[in-house]
Every structure is written in C-alpha cells, then in structure tokens.
Amino acid sequence: MIEITVPKLGLTMEKADLIKWEVGLGDRVTEGEILFVIETDKVTFEVPSPSEGLLFPLVAAGTRCEVEETVAYLAADQAEYETLLKEYPGVAREEKREEKAAGAGGMSPGSVKTAAITSEKPGTQRIKASPLARAMAEKNELSLSAIPGSGPGGRIVKADILKALKKSGSEQSGAEPAGTELLKQPAESIPIRGVRKVIFDNMYQSLQQSAQLTLHTEADAKALVSLRELLKKRGESPSYNALLVKIAASALRAHPAVNASVEENAITVWRQIHIGVAMETAGALVVPVVRNPDRKAIGQVEDDLRALIAKAKEKRLSPDDLMNGTFTLSNLGFADVDFFTPIIRPPESAILGIGRIMKKAVIENGQVVPGLRISLSLTFDHRIIDGAPAARFLKTIKDTVENPLLLIS
Questions:
Q1: Distance between CA 19 and CA 64 in Å, rounded?
Q2: Into which CATH architecture does domain 2-170 fall?
Q3: Is the Cα dihedral 337, 341, 346, 351 positive or negative?
Q4: Mean pLDDT of each 10-residue bin along the chain, 409 residues long
Q5: Which among 69, 35, 39, 67 is positioned nearest to 51, based on CA atoms?
Q6: Cβ-based neighbour number of residue 232 at 10 Å
Q7: Alpha helix positions (H), 125-189
Q8: In the chain, where does the domain assigned CATH 2.40.50.100 lie?
Q9: N or C: which terminus of the chain carries fewer CB neighbours within 10 A?
Q10: In terms of DSSP bridges, do strands 350-364 and 327-331 run parallel, antiparallel, or are they unpaired?
Q11: DSSP readout, 277-317?
Q12: Which residues 6+ apart lie within 8 Å of 81 measured at CB?
C-alpha cells in the first residue's frame, strides 16, 4: 500500500488546492497516470501515480491541503482495497446517500442497478457516475459519455444530469423565450482562484503601486535574422526569444539600475540577472525564469527556455521556476502584434515587449529599399528609473539587436 501525498514543488510552498481528481474511488491506475491536479498561488500541477494499483482517495476535490499531506492510498490489490474500505468507511457515504435519494425518488434498487449496468457497453472504458445519476440518465435517454462530471475524480452526479437536461431542453426549443431578448445571461462563471487569482492581484498591484511609462522604438532586424540563420548552419537552432533574452541580459549588465526593485523604503539593485519570459499555458499567463542568462552562451539559454516551455505544457512548473525574476520579456510577435504596452510584473522595475519581425520599406542612403523591422516597447517604473536612463537602456537593446554578433564575439 502506497501513500499518495501533496508534493512540495518549491522552497516556499506550504499549501495547495486539490482542484480535480482525474480518477475515482476504486479505479485501477498505471504508473505515471495522472491521479489529481493541484493548484498553488503560482502554478497548476498534475500529480502522477508512483505505481500501479487501485486508487482510494481520502479528500474531495476543492480541498485545501498541506504540503506532504496524505490525500489518497494506492492499494496493490483488491484485498488491500477492501481493508481501506473498512478502515475509512466514510469515503463511501456519498454513494450511499445518493443511493438513498434514488430510492426516495421512486426508483427501486433494482432499477438503479440496471441503470448502472446498461449505461456502459462491454469493452468500453468505465464511466464514473453515481447510481442516482445513472438512473436519471437512463430514464431520460441521456448518454453518460457526453456529460462532463463535476464530482470527485470527474464523477457524474445528479447536478450534472440536471444541467444536461436543461441544456438539452434549451437546444430543442431553439428560439429564445419571449421577453428575454433584452436580458444578459451568463454563459459561464469562472472562479478567480489559483493562478488566475495571482494574475488578477499582480496586474492590479502593478498599476496601483507603480508609475508606469512606456517607450516605443523600432530596430533593424536584418542582422538578427542573419545571426539566427548563421547559428542554424553551425548546428544550433536558437529561437528569437533565446536571442532576445541574451540581448536583454547584456543590456541589463550595462545598465544595472534597470535590474532593480523597490524593497520597503529602498531601491534594491540585484547582483544576479534572472529574466522571466511570459508564456501562456492552459489559458493562464505564467512567467518562468531563465537564470543568469548574462553568464551563458545562447545555446544554453535556448536549452533553459525549451526545458521551461516543456514543463509549462506538461503542467510541471514548480514555484521555484517562477520566483526571483529581475526583468521580464513578453513577445507577442507570434500573434502578428506590432506595438503594445506591457505591464510590469511586480516587484520588478521594467518589462520589454517584443513585436513581430515585419517587412517594411525603409530608407537607406537616400533610397527606399525593402527592410526587416522589429518593434520594441519598454515599460518602466518611473519612481525607480528616470526617462533618460530608460531611453538609453532601450537604445542599448536596439543597438544590440542591430549588431547581435557582439553577443558571440
């Protein structure tokens, strides 16, 4: 028998919300299969099974848990599972309550049992649903496979059936009911919690507690594109983000006052340079941090970025991956954005926004010729950095973009 606990994802992590069970009571799982999802104030993380066995959850989805708290057991076989049922009889109470509700609703135990059997076809994956939900689905000719479950481990419960029935009725009726043309009805309610709550609070704090000003400029991107092609020929394939992180790190080393934060009643200039790169994952903004890019070759910066991107996609980012940034880079070039006004990530003093590399007509030696341009937007906290030093910092970035061979010389 194996204890399943809430993992400690970072040095500062103390608690997490268990927001979803991917498997339910008594389900057989394989090693590496995702058991549940936790959410801290920084990341969402999928917790895999350490071995094969039968899952026995102890806490419901939505529970606030301590780090290393036991939230489930993994039974090696049916005998161990039966032992757990005897030791924790309360785990099955919800099922018994719903069975009782099914009887009170005019359904005999026999009909509930029949519904449980006939709602799944032989050879298909078992659908997790309460007896009452199965009976209601059977009575109303609903397919359980088409109904998302909101209970523990994605289990379908009575409320999910009622929601499906309401949706089915509105779809069949077609036109909106008379008198509702002027109403504003919600399609979805999204709780502000976890990572979204952090974004919610940080963006508000950023605009409320700093004096933000944005400077915009354009740089000739021809040399930057050529450098990337040159590195590809040498067997390297750095992304533009890796090059830009390295460029920003070089500029921060030349302008240390930008690599600063307000700490209580003092401006702290940081010795280390740690650059966060904004990216989207599962509908939320995360900013994993590349450590000390000023001391690394471009290839090493690219490796760090790829590792962070992979962890973000697989929901494996830890709080340590997101902490102690000193500067942030946000690149919206992939979305064909030219200029935008990025918002500072507290408690940092500045953020660099990157637009797309675009073809433009430019003037060289008095002649109009085709060129490549990239937009750069620097938002800075005017309480910490004055306009002229910020402009010089941005010019250093522009000059390095236009002469990037300085990075590898």
A1: 9
A2: Beta Barrel (2.40)
A3: positive
A4: 88 84 87 89 84 90 89 90 83 54 43 34 58 77 85 76 77 54 70 73 82 96 94 90 97 96 90 95 85 95 96 86 94 94 94 96 89 96 95 97 81
A5: 35
A6: 11
A7: 131-139, 158-173
A8: 2-170
A9: C
A10: parallel
A11: E-EEETTEEE--EEE-GGGS-HHHHHHHHHHHHHHHHTT--
A12: 26, 54, 56, 75
Buried b (16+ CB within 10 A) or exposed e, 336-368: ebeebebbbbbbbbbbbbbbbbeeeeeeeeeee
Q: pLDDT value at position 96?
A: 54
Q: Omega into 389 within 30° of 0, i.e. cis?
A: no
In this structure, what token pair is assigned to residue 403? 């002469």
Task: List Cβ neighbours of 351 (8 Å cut-off, separation of 6 or more).
Answer: 327, 328, 329, 330, 342, 343, 344, 345, 378, 379
**In angstroms, how far is the first alpha carbon of the chain from the final one?**
58
pLDDT tens string 258-314: 999 988 889 999 999 999 999 988 667 889 999 999 999 999 999 999 999 999 888
pLDDT score for 248: 97
Model confidence pLDDT, tens digit, residues 360-387: 988 888 999 999 999 999 999 999 999 9
For residue 316, give every residue at least 6 positions away whose Cβ sits within 8 Å of its Cβ, in sequence order, or none. Answer: 45, 46, 310
So what's the pLDDT on residue 196?
74
CA distance 409 to 393: 21
As a whole number of angstroms, the distance between CA 276 and CA 73 comes to 38
Of 382, 331, 325, 336, residue with least CA distance to 359: 336
Q: Are 145 and 127 in contact (CB under 8 A)?
A: yes
Nearest to 239 by CA among 129, 145, 107, 329: 329
CATH number assigned to the domain covering 195-407 = 3.30.559.10
Helix (H) or strand (E) holding 360: strand 350-364
**Distance of CA 45 to CAs 60, 204, 249, 317, Å?**
17, 25, 29, 7
Cite the active site residues: 382, 386
pLDDT at position 107 is 39
3-state secondary structure 75-109: ECCHHHHHHHHHHCHHHHHHHHHHHHHHHHCCCCH
Tokens of 296: 């690394």
Question: Cα-flanking dihedrals φ and ψ of residue 149, to 5°?
Answer: -95, 140
Contacts of 281 (CB under 8 A, 6+ apart): 312, 313, 315, 317
State the chain's maximal CA–CA distance in angstroms. Answer: 90
